[in-house]
Structure prediction request, 117 residues.
Amino acid sequence: MEKRNFTRVTFSGGASIKYKEQIFWGNIGNVSLQGFFIKTKHDLPLDNPLEVTIYQSPNSSIYLNACVVRSEEDGVGMKISGLDVNSFVRLREVISQQCNDQTLIMHETYKMANCIH
Prediction:
């Protein structure tokens, strides 16, 4: 059984990944305050800094820095290393809308505070 440290919820949306001067595209499968899974056929290197934009809606995006921590045939698992306050608030809202335990989400918020800039 897989043990998660953060609440993970299903999320459907597109994303762009910038690595060196290239842009790759994919679709988000799920998110947490600590990371996400992106469905993509592109090979992305493990443990290298990437800039990711998650397109939440036409007028709202989540901008973050992340690195690949797991690679699978249909995509990659990424860990968030940094994001701005507005993006953190949007990401937290996505998770809060699907989680009934707001105390747990608040606890996870405190654990992620050092990644917010």
The two ends are 34 Å apart (CA to CA). Residues 92 and 106 are 9 Å apart (CA to CA). The chain has two helices and six strands. The chain has one domain: 9-115.
